[in-house]
Design a protein that fits this description.
Distance between the termini: 64 Å
Number of strands: 13
Order of helices and strands: HHEEEEEHHEHEEHHEEEEE
Largest sheet: 11 strands, mixed
Number of helices: 7
Length: about 325
Amino acid sequence: MSILDKFKLDSSLFSAIADNIDSLEPTSSTRTLTVGKTIDFKGTINGIEVPAQATLREASLTRLSILDQTSPYTGKQYYLVTGVMNPVQMDVTVTVDGEKIGLIDLLHKFVNESGQDLDRDTFEARLIRNGFNLNGGQRLFFQQFGANEAGFKHAIEAFKAAGAIDVTGRIDNPGRIVAAYQHQTGVPLTSFEIGTTDRSKSRTNQGFVDFVDATVDSFQRVYGLRMQAHLLGTKMEGLSQAKLAEAEKKRQALLQMAKQWVGNWAGSQQRTLVTPSGAKEPQDIYDPVNAPCGRFTMVVNGNEVPCDLWSNSARANSATIESAPMVALSDEKPF
């Protein structure tokens, strides 16, 4: 007797599932990374989807800020929670033509298949020197729009109990920041949620899509700008003093942009101003991209404390929170 017959189950449903296995993929636009577990997600390279996996090894929360924002579309006010996890150590791979490839090997493959022959260890050393520490751990900037007030108050309470300190007063120009907390060594996280951005709904067509897209894009940006600066430097001989000064100013601007916000798992994007007429004006500066993240679990004095920033969430923000000793902070400014 088959197992289907034993439990009097209809075999046609399970046969259909086998024929349409993709129908079993999660429909949610978010994934939850949990320490020690591997998740599947759809990565993208130059807009082309590729199967990908991520295994979270370690994550710590170091910053948490609350901003009072106004929607440019509706004029309504809402809370925006931003934060930094540092470090976040994880293994990210893609599968290309049946071969599973780590991000460093993927970037190395791009370089070598362009006709070069660069040693793998030398390549990784250069990556680290320029800010890409894909194996050792990087920052992850995150945000949650329309955050629930009870949710972020609970997160702040837990963060403070773990030793975080209110550093709002240290901000020279706080703008819309109404509260900012910082923990120097970081509060361990056992899991966090990660979302994706629909760039078609962004006024600047920007935003986080996935870890693969962010890494490949950052790599191209950093080395592309460095190459532009190098080529400009080779063409400066024989220029007039005025032209030489102008070229050098441009070269330094390119090098400066190449250095900005490297080593953020969520990537970076060129600051773009949108004029009243709707025109987009790129600026010579890059900002860190904030990946959508509305849920995470902190470890406070040995206890797991789930935090949920989503509005109208069915998940409870409740846990026993015991205070920890305060931790001395560095002079690093919150954002």
